Every structure is written in structure tokens, then in C-alpha cells.
Amino acid sequence: MRGKQTTVSESDLPSELAASLSEVHGTVETSQVTLWRRLFAFAGPAYLVSVGYMDPGNWATDLEGGAKFGYQLLWVLVLSNAMAILVQTLGARLGIVAGRDLAQACRETYPRPVSVALWILCEIAIVACDLAEVLGAAIALNLLFHIPLMLGVIATAADTLLLLWFQRFGIRVVEAFVLALIVVIAACFGIEMFLAKPEMGPLVRGLVPHISRENLYIIIGIIGATVMPHNLYLHSALVQTRRIGPDEGAKRRACKYNLVDSVIALNGAMFVNIAILVMAAAVFFRTHTPVHEIQEAHLLLAPLMGTAVAGMVFAIALLCSGQSSTLTGTMAGQIIMEGFLNVRVRPWLRRLVTRLLAVVPAVLTIYYLGDHGTYRLLILSQVVLSMQLPFAVIPLVHFTNDRTRMGVFANSGWVRVLAWITAALIVVLNVWLLVSSVREWAGAAGRWESAVYAVAIGLGAALSTLLVWITLQPALYQWQKRLQRDTLGLHENTDTSLPVLSYTRILVPLDHSGLDRQAIAHAAAMARVHGAKLFLLHVEEGVTSQVYGSEASTAEVEAGQKYLEELVESLRDYHIDVETATRHSLFPKREIVRYAREVKPDLLVMGAHGHGRFKDLIFGNTIDPVRHELQIPILVVRDGK
What we know:
The structure is a single chain. It contains 26 helices and seven strands. The chain is mostly helical. It folds into three domains: 31-444, Amino acid/polyamine transporter I; 454-489, no CATH class; 505-638, HUPs (Rossmann fold). A five-stranded parallel β-sheet has the order 5-4-3-6-7, with helices on both faces. It has a two-stranded parallel sheet with strand order 1-2. Helix 3 (56-69) packs across helix 16, helix 5 (102-109) runs parallel beside helix 14 and helix 6 (112-145) crosses helix 15 (347-369). The longest helix is centred in the last third of the chain and has 41 residues, at 449-489. It is elongated. It starts with 27 loop residues before the first strand and ends with a strand.
């Protein structure tokens, strides 16, 4: 089985196998020997995700909660963080094990109309998130340099190009830049905590759950604003920037280190949120000073704390928060568009369009409602994010519960229970927040109250229908399959029943010709769909191989081994589990049959050159003898020339 050497490239494989964040996919080596080096190699994705949990949109709810209720709502931040760690861990596991980000998994699972609807909701959420970042950065510039909010909002349209410049240097540089901003934010709030001098007794008591009619709305707001939908798409893609082996041990190790990464990073984000709430409680609640806007907090900090440093540090942290969230929002937008639509857009163009969609409503709000309208716009952005969150969490829970997709890494029983409780809590609280917000908007709409309710009811009905369908989709799919089997079973005298096929082991004999590439592409496509393992067999027919067998060492044998290694490396880039074997024989068909009986594949993929009978006499015919010897399905790939 000799011929020219070829390797599988990304263009050779079907488009469905396109890697998430392909420009940085698998670029970080994780094969370090020592524990600390390996921890460092895996550290990064969760830190990029964590900035979404401390973006300017969270500040409003934390400030208001601390100013109104003191330390009472600290337990809400701890609960929100636990929920965030759970869902982010599920997102990371999906990316590591299935090799797909959440958007890609949705596109492969749902009908196109559903995927397009989910994509539209995601894009709206990205714009809403970007809106909070725009306003946060503009407010910070206003507080630090007294730049008018209108000019600050417009200036943020340009910072996107500066931030995208970092991506040219690779994912590790981006992670280092974002981590530096997080360190600045944490340091700023460490200073704020020191200056605020919180009371430890009430602070500790704040960790005990306490719910009342007065604080319920802000509790819902904090939880709704904490878990960000775009972070689930982002995390499932970022973990794939690490080079992870295809075997179960490598994936299990990657899941463990990413869990450590998530716990450390998200607990850091929780510290920032707790620091904001504690500062508000220690400064504003203690002095009975109501705070409803970020600008108010900044102006009141200096006189209440007795130092101008407090206000400046607060503004610096706000600016860093907006800038770090901006960069991760760019990557999330790229992942969502490529995953749902399989369409690639230049990052700078994608970012500029998203930023302009956020700048326009911000400019209009400031123009018509003044600077105080920014707070209402921040709250609106959080409501929009809350509305989209269930459409990310529920598919994620379904996908990670699916043993066909996740294999032995599917969620265990207790994880499933926690995941569904979390999803149900998120849905209920976000629906509550949305209904409350609609009532507030309708009450403030005056003569347009009926129109507000009409739009809200129509949109709510459409979204509810979509959410119910997504929730029930696995059950509906199983019911449809059973119905089809029952319907076909009515015709007992005809052989029309269609079995449900699932391939787990696919064998591909190689002959070092151009057909190898086509055969492997077909096998890889099915392996990705079914989660199957590929077995590549190469038979050496040379005289040296027959005499010395596995001890043979010639240029041809070495070339064959290198050829196999290149194929394996290419396939593993797509997270396909692959095993190779080299046999030495003058009769390749015998070795194919013998090897097939060893590995017991449920599908054989072979290339056919399209020889006529006369050429078969000269070149030999492998397919027919193998077909008669093996009782398994055989996919014959013809030469496309």
C-alpha cells in the first residue's frame, strides 16, 4: 500500500469540522511535566470569562444593594458565584470533551430557524453587554478627566481597534493583558475596602440568607446580572486554545485543571462584587445616603471617606472594568457568529459594527434624557441580558447531559440535579425581573402603556414558545424516533424498519494515495457526529518489511511512519480520537481482515480507484475480498477525478 504522502489540512475536511477560534485553536501547549507549569498552562480562559462577572452592568445592582440593605445581600453574591462556577464548568467541559463551543453545538443540534433565532438573541445580548461597557468606560472618563459623557461614549468607538491590536500577539498576550486589568480592579477595591473600614460582625451575618419583600427585587437583579449568557459561549471556545490529547486521561486532566482555573478566577470576580457591595454598605448604608447611580457613588465617596483618593481609585477600577469586558465581548461576538452561522468576519469589522450598535442608543439616551438617563440604560442592558440567559443555560445542560456527545464525561446524577435547579432558578428569577421591568416601563409610558404591554406580551409569547421547544427538544426527538419506528412496524410483511445507527469504531485502511484524504475526511465527519474513534491501518508491502517485519527500518518504512504521525496530528487538532497500526505483509487484504477482527469496528471506510476488470487483474482488487470476509458495513469512497 504505497504512494505519495499527503496530510489532512483544514481545507480538506468538511466545513462542519471548522475549529472554534481557529486562529488560536490548540496553540497553547499543556504537556508540561511539573504541576505548577501545567496549572499555568491551563490558566487563562476563566480569567477572560471572569471579567463578565465584574463589568459595569454589575456595579449598579451591587451599589444599590449595599446602599439600601447594608451587608444583608452578601449571601446572594456567594450563591450567584456558585451558580456561575457550575454553569461555566459545564461550558468548559463541553469544549474540552466534545471539541465544540456552545454555538457550534446548537447549530449542529437544532433546525436552522431555531439556530438563527438563538443567534439573533445572542447578538442582541452582545450589544446589550457592550452598551454597559460603553457607558461604564464613558462614565469613568468623565469622572477621571471631566470629559462629557457624549464625547466619552463616542471615544469608546475607537478603543476597540487598540484592543484588537493585542490579538495579533496570540491568546496568551490577550490573557495577560486582561489579567493585568483584573489585578488593577482588585487592587483598587482592596484600597476601597481598607478606607471604608467595614464592620466584621454585620459582614459575617450578611452571609446568612435573608429574604424579605423589600429586598427581593434587588436579589433578583443581582442574580440576573451576575451570570452572563455570552460567557458560556466564550468559555466553551477558549478552553480549546489549549492543546489537549484525544484520550480520556488527557480530557479528564484538562477538565480538572480548568475547574481549578474557574474556581480561582470566578472567586476573584466574587471578591470584586463583594467589595463593591461592602463599600456601599460601609459608606452609604451606614450614613443613610441613598445611591442610585455610579456617578453619585463616585461623588459621595470622597467626602464620606474623607479622602479624594477613594473617588479616583473607584473611577480607575471602573475604566479597567469596561476595557477588560470590551475585549472579551469582541471574542464572544466572533464565536457566536462563526458558531451559529459558520460565517467568518474580520475581527476589527465585527467589533466596530457591534460597538456602533451600542454607541448609537447611548448617544441618543444622553442627548434626550441627559446624563441621568445612563443609569436607566444600564438597567435595561441587564434586563436584556437576563432575557437571553435561559436560551444559553438550558441547551448547555442538555448537551452536557447527553452521553452520545459527552461519553463518560456526561453529567453525573447529582450534577444533573444541581444543573437543572440552577437553570430553573435562573429562568424563574429572570422572568420575574423581566415582568417587573415591563410593569415599571408601562407605568412610566403614560398614554403608551397599552402599546408597551402589547409589545411585551407578543415578544414574551414568542420567546416562551422558543424556550419551551428548546427545553423539550431531547424528549421530542426521542418521541419522534419512537413514532417513526412504530409507524414502520405496522407493515409487518415488509422489511422497512429503519434501525438507529451509531458508530463508535471506524476503521480506515490507507494506501498512501490521494484517496486517503477523501476516505479520512468522510470517516472524520462521521466520527465527529457519533463521537467515534478512528483506527488507521497501514500495510507495508516491501521485501525488507516481509523479512524483518516490525524491525524493518528503511527510508520507505520511516516515510510511512511519518505519514501516519502527520495524519494523527491533523485529526487530533479536530479532537478526534485516533489509533494507528502498521502491519507487514505481501497480502494487504488479509491484514485488513485480521486487524478488523482485532479491533472489531462497526464501519469500514475504504478508497476505490475505479479500476475496470482488466486493471483489477493487474493492480489487484482489495474491496471485494474484504467485503466477503467481514460482516460489517463498508463505505466505499470513489476517486473524484
